[in-house]
Amino acid sequence: MSQNSSKLSSDIQWKGYAIENTDDWSNFKVIDFKPKPAGDYDIDIKIAYCGVCGSDVHTITGGWGAPHLPLIPGHEITGVAARVGPKVTSIKVGDRVGVGAQICSCLKCDLCKGYNEQYCPDAVDTYNGVYPDSGTVSQGGYSTAIRAHEHFVFRIPDNIKFEEASPLFCAGTTVYSPLVRHGAGPGKRVGVVGVGGLGHLALQFAKALGCADVIAFSHSPSKNEDALKMGATRVINTGEQGFESSVKGKLDLIISTVDDFGALPLQEILSTLKIGGRYIMVGLPDDNLPKMKAMDLVAKGVLLGGSKIGSRKEIVEMLKLASEKNVRPWIQVLPMKDAGKAVKALNENKVKYREVLRQDIDGKQIN
């Protein structure tokens, strides 16, 4: 079948880098796999790049529970639309496109109709998800190709490179959604806890949204200069005694991106919020929340909450803002065969600030 065909094949096989054992989670092997049966609204994407996300490590190590094995991770996907279903209207063959952490939902329930499709009970994750109709396990972007419903496929702005766009589809979306949902913008004072894969984009988006003050909370002084370049107006070292005193009661919103609660001074950070301020978690460590008392929330009427990726509407807005305001991830590009090296570096906190895997498998089978 030629790449210009609009017909999707239901009898196709692709290749990807998979893990077969959570006890050997950095040992990737190339496997063959079949995508879910083709639907009228599906798009086949020839993958060029895939970002490496903390979710990948949590999943392949079993930190979030036993995954379906063998498993190909990856949900920061960019590439070219190779085939489109007969009812697809938003994407055409040859378009530069991306896919994030969600690949399907029912699109019929109140959540889906209300721009909350990421919370749909029938949502399917881009990898390690199960399609309710076919039972197919979704395989991710460390591969040659992916099949996705057009609702979850997005055109990449012309001025953003494939490799720069990849992290925007998960990391960028994950921080943009809670920023806009909780009022980040002109006149607002926003804090970002953690300067890493998520945090470095949260700082940039907070600045791009016009926040009056953007405070970076970090326990790594070595990142101070970078954080200021990313948009922070000030960096506060959470390892110092009394770090919270200068901003106590001054912040409207805090986005927490940390991936380890072990040394998080949560009570002190909560004290920097205004009355009615919000602390929103987007980092998802394997361990439990730090110990805290109800009074930590009640005394100032602050809210503790979380956020899950973003809606299609928010992703479209996020890409537009990134294009216009030059929001870009700071990346390291590796060949996809080095996926094991990439996930180990991420697990060891040695990445500044996002890794992106470049396709290196012969992708003729998508043509």
Automatic annotation (TrEMBL):
Keywords: Metal-binding, NADP, Oxidoreductase, Phosphoprotein, Zinc. Its cofactor is Zn(2+). One of its GO terms (biological process) is alcohol metabolic process. It is an enzyme of class 1 (oxidoreductase). Its EC number is 1.1.1.2. One of its GO terms (molecular function) is alcohol dehydrogenase (NADP+) activity. Residues 23-357 form the Enoyl reductase (ER) domain. Pfam families: ADH_N, ADH_zinc_N. InterPro entries: ADH-like_C, ADH-like_N, ADH_Zn_CS, CAD-like, D-isomer_DH_CS1, ER, GroES-like_sf, NAD(P)-bd_dom_sf. This is alcohol dehydrogenase (NADP(+)). Belongs to the zinc-containing alcohol dehydrogenase family. Homodimer. SMART domains: PKS_ER. It comes from Psilocybe cubensis (Psychedelic mushroom). It catalyses: a primary alcohol + NADP(+) = an aldehyde + NADPH + H(+).
